[in-house]
Design a protein that fits this description.
The protein is globular and about 85 Å long. It is an alpha+beta fold. It has 20 helices and 10 strands. Helices cover 46% and strands 10% of the residues. Strands 1, 4, 5, 6, 7 and 8 form a 6-stranded mixed beta sheet that branches. Strands 2-3 form a two-stranded antiparallel ribbon. It has a two-stranded antiparallel sheet with strand order 9-10.
């Protein structure tokens, strides 16, 4: 047998490419997370763990236990780890500890593509796909159901229940949970009891969830919505979702902790709704005092509920019930932006059911990723389907980002014009798309963005996320995936940069680590 385990692996194996690619990445963020004083057990080399995880994801191995098994019996894994066998718990903790940094490796791969001259961002295509999460759709509960579950887990015996309910039926909420102050005190006491009963938890239930600092731009809201009170409530919910994406809450393992998290989230939802309504009432009072201008239509009294009336999923509170092609799923809306060569320039995740509010955020994310990867090219034309039609976003992208947007105002299903969508920008967009250049550009959308989702969902069978929480799902969506097996020799990044159009179209798909399309490439 060969004296060196590296001699067991062929020179054209994918593992060599992943090892070389990781060697060129900036891993300083991983090293900064470890202590430098020498205390504690020695950790596995971060570069080895990153290479192991990227190669496992690229070869469709997503389970930490499966990765551990491969480290024992697979030659490629043993070459990567140097015959070490990390425990599955160590692998899982590494992914959880560095999930934000692992997601940022997306930009490092994009930088390598830019150095190889493979990125052509002049024409970009945007689309999304609804994917199920690691959540049970039947585990969605309202506040009363969640409160009863919390009470059931925290009552000690029948005498305590009799003392709590008295002569009542027993299925209504206690008076303590019918006011905001009482609910906050109840959550605090439940959290303290949980800490006493489960002291072994490394991350017990956290403090009270924070609420966003709501800022309402009156002129913008009135000009955008023209729907009175509902427009202000919608703006409050939008800012709350942005706050939760900026400061995500980790999804606890314990069901008791998740019950508290879900109940407190519903309480924050109700608090934000009330604050948005107060802002609307103050705005309406100022307008009346200024000139007697009537705001909105006939008065519709706002009656805030005594208890939160929303619903949240107990398995993954961040997931939402979305309508997908295969039916309704409890999951996320995964977004991607690709260029003409199917290089993924940006990949983000949202939990909104529609795409109409994703145009400007995805274009902004694309520009930020290109700048971070130090790629000089900038998008000139953005292509998207009819679901991305949003006049405010279109104006923002065209006027401030100087990117032409091509989006059909009509759906592609029936081919009929939408009622009332005539004249102005609707007719102009139809005229541009009907022109020779517009038709030629928009035809590129399906052949660039759709194969990315088709390869991910159908060829690789990735139809759902395996982890829970916004940050974890985003990391999973931005991870590398297995490429089609068309390599004959070990590739080189410098060699890729020298390829011409006559040799074939070669590119590294950021979602696939390395991918070839078109005619076979001769290296």
């Amino acid at each position: 047998m060969p004296p060196d385990v590296r001699d067991w692996l062929p020179a054209d194996h994918l593992a060599w490419f992943v090892i070389d690619a990781v060697a060129q990445m900036d891993l300083s963020a991983f090293y900064a997370a470890y202590r430098a004083d020498g205390h504690g057990r020695a950790a596995y080399e971060p570069s080895t763990m990153v290479t192991l995880i990227l190669y496992a994801f690229a070869t469709r191995v997503r389970s930490s236990r499966a990765i551990e098994r491969h480290c024992r019996r697979d030659v490629a894994y043993r070459v990567i780890t140097g015959n070490l066998v990390p425990d599955h718990a160590t692998i899982a903790r590494f992914v959880e500890r560095h999930e934000r940094t692992l997601a940022d490796l997306f930009g490092e791969v994009l930088r390598l593509c830019g150095e190889a001259g493979l990125v052509k961002p002049e024409v970009i295509a945007i689309d999304g796909t609804r994917m199920a999460g690691s959540a049970n759709s039947d585990a969605t509960r309202d506040f009363e159901e969640i409160a009863r579950d919390i009470l059931a887990e925290h009552k000690a015996n029948d005498e305590a229940e009799d003392e709590l309910y008295g002569d009542a039926r027993g299925d209504e909420l206690p008076e303590q949970l019918r006011t905001a102050e009482g609910r906050r005190e109840f959550f605090r006491q439940a959290r303290q009891k949980l800490r006493r009963e489960q002291p072994e938890l490394q991350e017990p239930a956290g403090e009270e969830l924070s609420e966003p600092e709501l800022v309402f731009d009156e002129e913008r809201i009135v000009a955008r919505t023209r729907q009175g009170r509902e427009g202000w409530l919608r703006e409050g919910r939008r800012q709350l979702e942005q706050h939760r994406w900026r400061k995500p809450d980790p999804v606890p393992r314990s069901r008791s902790e998740r019950l508290l998290l879900a109940a407190e989230r519903l309480e924050v939802d109700l608090a934000v709704e009330r604050r948005a309504n107060e802002a609307y009432e103050q705005f309406k009072a100022r307008r009346r005092a200024a000139g007697g201008i009537r705001v909105g239509g006939p008065p519709k009294p706002y009656q805030p509920s005594r208890v939160p009336d929303g619903k949240v999923n107990l398995t993954d509170p961040d997931s939402k019930r979305l309508k997908a092609r295969e039916g309704y799923v409890q999951g996320y809306n995964a977004q991607a932006v690709v260029d003409e060569s199917q290089i993924v320039l940006a990949a983000e995740v949202t939990n909104t059911n529609t795409d109409w509010s994703q145009l400007d955020p995805m274009v902004t994310a694309t520009i930020a990723e290109l700048e971070r990867a130090e790629i000089t090219g900038r998008p000139e034309t953005a292509l998207a389907d009819a679901q991305y039609w949003n006049e405010e976003h279109i104006d923002e992208v065209i006027a401030n980002k100087h990117i032409q947007v091509l989006i059909p105002p009509d759906g592609s299903g029936s081919g009929k014009q939408r009622a009332g969508w005539t004249g102005g920008r609707y007719s102009w967009m139809r005229y541009v798309l009907a022109s020779t250049l517009g038709e030629q550009l928009y035809r590129k959308r399906m052949q660039t963005i759709e194969p990315v989702f088709g390869h991910t969902r159908h060829n690789r069978g990735v139809t759902r996320f395996r982890r829970r929480g916004r940050t974890a799902v985003r990391t999973e969506w931005r991870r590398p995936r297995r490429p089609p097996r068309r390599l004959s020799r070990r590739p080189s990044l410098h060699r890729l940069a020298d390829l011409g159009t006559d040799a074939g179209r070669a590119y590294i798909n950021l979602s696939d680590t390395l991918r070839w399309s078109g005619r076979p490439v001769r290296l």
